[in-house]
Amino acid sequence: MSALGAVSGGLVQDAAAQTADKGERLFIRCKTCHEITAGKPHKVGPNLHGLFDRKAGMADGFKYSDAMRNSGVAWNDQTLETWLTKPTSLIQGTTMAFVGLPNKEDRDALIAYLHKATQ
């Protein structure tokens, strides 16, 4: 690998790490209601561990709204982007008290962090 390739690869990794770090800071607001660690109990909202590719309303042991349970949504980057922009635009009747994140960079950072933190 050339020196330029090594440097540019390092810059990409640094940018990804910075994005995830920003997402972690943004998640502080979410931690009031959501846990992300496997085996930890649900809070006001469901534990998000194993979020990606899980169907909405299907975390064991959490009492979801009918709207969430019956939505047919599976969580991925695209559905989370829509959800984080405005939850009711994805699932009308959700009981989650969150109006959305207006900033696209913030949504991208939060999704990057969730990929890392919910595995």
Q: Quickly name the level 1 CATH class.
A: Mainly Alpha
Number of domains: 1
What structural category do the secondary elements indicate?
Answer: mainly alpha
List how many beta strands DSSP finds. Answer: 0
Shape: globular
**Number of separate helices:** 5
The CATH homologous superfamily is termed Cytochrome c-like domain
Largest sheet: none
SSE order, as H and E? HHHHH
Mean of pLDDT: 91
Tell me the Rg in angstroms.
16 Å
The CATH architecture classification is Orthogonal Bundle
Annotated CATH topology: Cytochrome Bc1 Complex, Chain D, domain 2
Distance between the termini: 31 Å
Beta-strand residue fraction: under 5%
Helical fraction equals 40-55%
Indicate the low-confidence ranges by residue numbers.
none
What does this entry look like structurally?
With 119 residues, the protein is mainly alpha-helical. It has one domain (3-117): Cytochrome c-like domain (Cytochrome Bc1 Complex, Chain D, domain 2, Orthogonal Bundle). It is built from five helices and no strands. α3 crosses α5. The longest helix has 25 residues, at 3-27. 16% of the residues are buried. The model has no long low-confidence stretch (mean pLDDT 91).
